[in-house]
Design a protein that fits this description.
The protein has about 210 residues and is mostly helical. It has helices at about 5, 10-30, 40-45, 50-55, 60-80, 90-105, 110-120, 125-150, 155, 165-185, 190-205. Helix 7 (about 110-120) packs across helix 10.
């Protein structure tokens, strides 16, 4: 054990172990896929025993969830950065930024395929099903909060488009569908969906 690790408290050592395992698992899951990655391989690559994995994560789905939480936290931070809370944001600039975020995210095939593999586990695993619903809800809430911040009263009076949560769900659901299609066939374009998003934003901006 390195001297600096030996000087850590037990809780600090455990936190470091968890962080190391999640980082290593993220690399392996994204590179090789969920099914092709074993806990043994993750433990070895991270420099820990398999027992260290099981003492922090009860099984592979639990570790995969931690990886997806890590990725989703990054994605939600990117969305939050599109409309910082301490400054006024131009709606059109916000939508342009959201469109660029969608292009980047919908083009991330490794992330999409990992989400797809994890979702397939939900058929026989209620915990995974609940986890997926929670992760989706959190990112939808983040999008809705930013839409409310940018468009404000325009959304409140826009019966044609629904509530901010309705719009956020539509954006997210469209994105998920396109991501899966593009993971199978990268020729599927995201631009029609982005054009619709931009057109809706322009209408809201005029209200």
């Amino acid at each position: 054990m390195p001297p600096e690790t030996a000087r850590m408290s037990r809780s600090d050592r455990r936190a470091k172990t968890v962080a190391d395992l999640v980082t290593t698992a993220r690399t392996a899951f994204l590179r090789d896929g969920y099914a092709a990655t074993s806990l043994d391989a993750i433990a070895e690559a991270a420099g820990y025993s398999k027992g260290a994995v099981y003492s922090n994560f009860k099984d592979k789905p639990t570790l995969c969830r931690a990886v997806l939480v890590d990725i989703h936290d990054e994605k939600m931070a990117e969305i939050a950065d599109l409309a910082p809370g301490d400054s006024e944001v131009d709606p059109i600039r916000f939508v342009d930024g959201l469109a660029d975020w969608l292009r980047r995210s919908l083009g991330d095939m490794e992330w999409t395929m990992l989400e797809f593999e994890y979702a397939a586990l939900a058929r026989n695993n209620p915990d995974v099903k609940e986890s997926i619903a929670t992760l989706r809800y959190e990112i939808s809430e983040t999008i809705a909060a930013q839409l409310t911040r940018v468009f404000g009263d325009s959304l409140a009076i826009s019966d044609a488009f629904g509530t901010p949560h309705d719009i956020a769900d539509l954006i997210l659901s469209t994105g998920i569908g396109l991501s899966v299609q593009r993971a199978i066939d990268p020729r599927v374009s995201v631009e029609p969906a982005i054009s619709i998003l931009t057109a809706v934003a322009a209408l809201l901006h005029e209200m």
